Amino acid sequence: MPELLLSLPKLRSRKIDWVEIASSLTVRFFTLVPLLVLLAILGKVFIEGSGRMSWSFLTEAPAEGMTQGGIFPCIFGTAAVTVLMIIMALPLGVGAAIYLVEYGSSSLLVRMIRAAVNNLAGVPSIVFGLFGVGFFILFVGRNIDRALQTGLLFGQPCMLWAAATLSVLTLPVIIVSTEEALNAVPQSHRAASLALGATKWQTIRDVVLPQARGGILTGAILAISRGAGETAPILFTGCAYFLPRLPVVEFLGIPMINPLDQFMELSYHIFIMTTQSINAQATRPIQYATTLVLIVLTFLLNLSAVLLRFYFRKRLGRISL
Amino acid sequence: MPIFQDADSPKEDQNAPREVLLPLGESSLDFQRFITSKKFHFSEWLMEKLLLIAGVSSVLIILLIFIFLFKEAVFFFQTGRLLDLIGKWVYDPWDEKTSFKMMWQAVSEIPKYSLIPLLCGSFLVAIPATIISTILGIGSAVYLSEIASAKTREILKPTLELLAGIPTVVIGFFMLAVAASFLQEIFHTQFRLNAFAGSLGVAITTLPIIVTLSEDALRAVPQELRNASLALGASKWQTIWGTALPAAVSGISASVILGFGRALGETMIVVMATGNAALVTGNIFSSVRTMTANIAAELGSVDRGSEHYYALFVVGAVLFTLTFFLNLSSEIVLNKMRRRLRM
């Protein structure tokens, strides 16, 4: 016993353990790497892109073989296609999430849906592009044309099919975040509503969904940001190298987005300007400025999603207390 | 739960509750009629069915992707043979002999559709990318879950999410315009755009996936295990190496498999940064063409129904199958971990 007590201070005395120090320095460094990469990309694009940035760059159409002018048609196209995309994807995704959380027990069907959603999230984006061409344009579009006798209207690349392809791609994003939002609603609120005599759907509509609104909104914003940044699925389903007009049609005297027209898009614009333009080196400033616009757009969307989620989590936490 | 569901299950006669509820007065009778009326049940039933359709739609979409990829891919074999996907015996008038060529050369007198150079390219990009992001990712995950304070984590995790949110075309552009020249100066490579430049770009996109999922796996390890290890006199790092990481190994490997699947499927970065030359090579500093880049580069200029068009769908089907099984195995590993940790 005395020997043990004597040896205790020895145990407690800390030798400098180089392995410990090296390990903790290494993981700190490893964590820094992604941040540095993020900073490098943002910094470079900001520095190079801000030179070409001006109000007219944002509001004018490209001119002189895309070596001059602005990128307004690309911004318009990106906005239009993401709006169409979210109109298609949001009801489907939210509905699927409600079914999974509120109606699905752990049945085989629910497990199948979960597996499908997970797999959908992992399908390469170019495969969605192939699917868009093979299914939406050549199968659905051509068959609509045949049925309506419209010649070649639906059976060709256009904004409608690009948006449909993107909505398939963003579906898992919406489902997963909506599920999370629904699960965060306390079970006791559902029980209270049901105990008051409300039916299941009334409970979902009036009790669960209003509380999950924030989470669903976050998911929608994330989906929009993802859709706005994807290029591969729309390469062959509706993007145009250059269009002299906006994809707008007059409907009952009001100008509307024409979903059956092709469109220009920001990320596709960056892609073709860097790889397929006649003189890629000369148009570098335009490429940087376009990239800056795209980054700022997706960055703001993602940031607002992160902040929204933070805010709603905090508020939900207070409620359930 | 059955108590709450009484309203949806009109098992007994609608008039039956009347006698029971009579003492409670007319208003409660109205209420009873209100919640058991037929019309109401119809909308309940309709909503459930609509939501079911929405839920089933993702299963349907996966099936449709499967059907439409393979349907078009099968047409390739009308004219092509299975051997064509590996290589072709071609007579070379210069050497005056016939040789077995493994090439992807769709636009030529004798079109060749060998998948070997494309597979070569895909793996030459995806494997280094996965290795880089695994090393960095596990390190970051350990830091985030074991060392960082709650406050640091609250700042770092959203930042990682922002990194994940950068469009891939932007990363591709950055690799092409900035990083490629920089890398060429360091490594003195023959090609400015090569598999290594591509794999660095792809690593940026797979890193957030691996960090997030590995961190989740580490945080799922019960705190008692760590406490036990620390109580036995192990140091912090001995606990991390000997207890936390081994307990989370299945979750971490699931994240790596998932990251590898993403790396194989990445398109825009490899189109822009790998040089797009379909070569059979093991040299990481040579230009390569991946399966994804091949589809992206050629699908725009083919006629529907041509052999070339179907060949591209064969490439897509191979890619889809590969990533499908990678996703599946990652899910199986994850489920195993969940079952074990619940015990």
Task: Describe what this molecule looks like in 3D.
With 321 residues, chain A is mainly alpha-helical. Helix content of chain A is 72%, strand content 4%. The longest helix of chain A is centred in the C-terminal third of the chain and has 37 residues, at 284-320. Chain A is globular. Chain B is mainly alpha-helical and 343 residues long. Chain B has two domains: 4-76, no CATH class; 115-342, MetI-like (MetI-like fold), CATH 1.10.3720.10. Helices cover 69% and strands 4% of the residues of chain B. Chain B is built from 13 helices and four strands. Chain B has helices at 16-21, 26-36, 38-74, 116-147, 150-165, 168-187, 195-219, 223-231, 236-247, 249-265, 268-273, 291-298, 307-342; strands at 88-92, 97-101, 104-105, 112-113. In chain B, the strands form two sheets. A two-stranded antiparallel sheet of chain B has the order 1-2. A two-stranded antiparallel sheet of chain B has the order 3-4. The interface between A and B is large, with 98 and 94 residues.
Q: How does the SSE layout of this entry go?
A:
The complex is a heterodimer of chains A (321) and B (343).
Chain A: H1 2-12, H2 18-50, H3 55-59, E1 62-63, E2 68-69, H4 72-103, H5 108-122, H6 125-148, H7 159-184, H8 187-195, H9 200-229, E3 248-251, E4 254-257, H10 266-275, H11 284-320
Antiparallel strand pairs in A: 1-2, 3-4
Helix pairs in contact in A: 2-11, 4-7, 4-9, 5-7, 6-7, 7-9, 8-9, 9-11, 10-11
Chain B: H1 16-21, H2 26-36, H3 38-74, E1 88-92, E2 97-101, E3 104-105, E4 112-113, H4 116-147, H5 150-165, H6 168-187, H7 195-219, H8 223-231, H9 236-247, H10 249-265, H11 268-273, H12 291-298, H13 307-342
Antiparallel strand pairs in B: 1-2, 3-4
